[in-house]
Amino acid sequence: MNREDETLKKQGLFIGLVTLDAIYLSAGVPQNNQKIVATDSTINAGGPATNAAIAFSYLGNQSTLVGAVGQHPLTAIIYGELERYGVAIADLDPHRTEPPPLSSIIVTQATGDRAVISINATKSQILGDRLPLDSWEQFNIVLIDGHQMSVSQRIAQISHAQTIPVVLDGGSWKPGLETLLPFVDYALCSSNFYPPNCHNASEVFTYLANLGIPHIAMTNGENPIQYLSQGIPGWVEVPKVKVIDTLGAGDIFHGAFCHHILQEPFPRALASAAKIASDACQVFGARPRNNLT
After folding, report:
1. Domain contains 216
2. Which of 111, 152, 193, 280 could pair covalently with 189 via S-S, beta carbons 3.0-4.6 A apart?
3. What angle (nearest 5°) sits at the alpha carbon of residue 93, between those of residues 91 and 99?
4. pTM tops 0.70
5. What is the CATH number of the domain that holds 79?
6. If phi over 0 gives left and psi between -120 and 50 gives alpha, with beta otherwise, what is residue 262?
7. What does the pLDDT look like over 242-259, one tens digit per residue?
């Protein structure tokens, strides 16, 4: 790729969780005191912001990932994979010697459902005054997964002031989000995202709209995506595919959305991202594959 092509790349900033994932494909989930043999396995970097950054980069852009990584020997796997996908790292805790957050994941072969046990960023929270970047002007879009709340709040404020669109990966409600949401342009929430005193999708949409968020969407697996864009409601169908593995599908959806929203209107960007995420569910593992187009 020549220099001119490089300058045409969109720049995305992704803030949040960086993990090391051990993923197993199995006929089922073990019961108490049971040992089972997996039919396949893989180890890779993980976390919502991490997977989204990889998907955004895979689609022809430049990603920068902001998270706590450190220098434990296990982080070599993380660094190597992110380098392979062209994702730059802005490390919030470069001198950290503890292991990265670890996740063990079992994917059920017949259904693609996954069971996860993990340690998130609870033990590696960084204060918002320790930002690893000097400026944000070069970025076209920012995604926040809520796992580094103090840093995310500060970056969301800065990005909003510079009219850089901010995307929220709302997988679940996290304390502190109420101070970040007023700076969000696109809230992409799962059906498990329940702000305080919200008990259904209608109440979630009302809560977020009352905060002034112009574009809101709620995903629900293979079911249609419900959205509210500038006060106009609608639905986007999700392609029907043979599911092998749903792990990371939401993260890929968010990374693909960041790519498409820079060139398409909100409903069409949701549809384009849903197609990419659905395609990714047809193979084992959380990585973008050659069929992501």
Report:
1. yes
2. 193
3. 105
4. yes
5. 3.40.1190.20
6. alpha
7. 887 777 889 999 999 999
